[in-house]
Specification:
This is Outer membrane transport energization protein ExbD. Belongs to the ExbD/TolR family. This protein has 138 residues and is of the alpha/beta class. The chain has four helices and five strands. Helix 3 packs across helix 4 (114-127). The protein starts with a helix and ends with a strand.
Length: 138
């Protein structure tokens, strides 16, 4: 009799894993279906070689961002002038009215926060579809 009790205990110890696997697959399908796929916004930047195509400097709008986050604008052989960050868009529009160009060159100090550079780029893109070239200064 003791042998039969021992065999019964062993058979009672088996656990059926099928219901647990069903639940896991159902949860997996639920999370896959309910996941929203978000396309990240990014700025496409092509790093060119030093000897490749040059931008015509006489026909460009220059924006210089100093380490103190001051924004200086110059175009059409005019002296550079200090511009407020919120007024970049209006100044770019004025520069485009006075000078026909498709290029804007941003010359930023390497210590400038990226936020400032990208804000300036957003203001430039808001005015028209200009080609933006970025340079860093040590």
């Amino acid at each position: 009799m003791s042998r039969k009790k021992l065999i019964d205990r062993e058979t009672d110890a088996d656990v059926d894993m099928t219901p647990m696997l069903d639940i896991v697959f159902i949860l997996l399908i639920f999370f896959i279906v309910t996941t929203s796929f978000v396309k990240e916004l990014a700025i496409e930047a092509n790093k060119s070689q030093k000897n490749e195509g040059k931008v015509s400097s006489s026909n460009s709008i220059y924006i210089e961002i100093t380490a103190q986050e001051q924004i200086w604008l110059s175009y059409a052989n005019k002296p550079k002038r200090l511009v407020d960050l919120e007024r970049v868009e209006a100044n770019i529009e004025r520069a485009l009215a006075e000078q026909e160009t498709q290029n804007v060159i941003i010359k930023a100090d390497y210590q400038v926060r990226h936020e400032v550079v990208f804000t300036v780029m957003d203001h430039i893109k808001a005015t028209s579809d200009l080609q933006i070239n970025i340079m860093t200064v040590d």
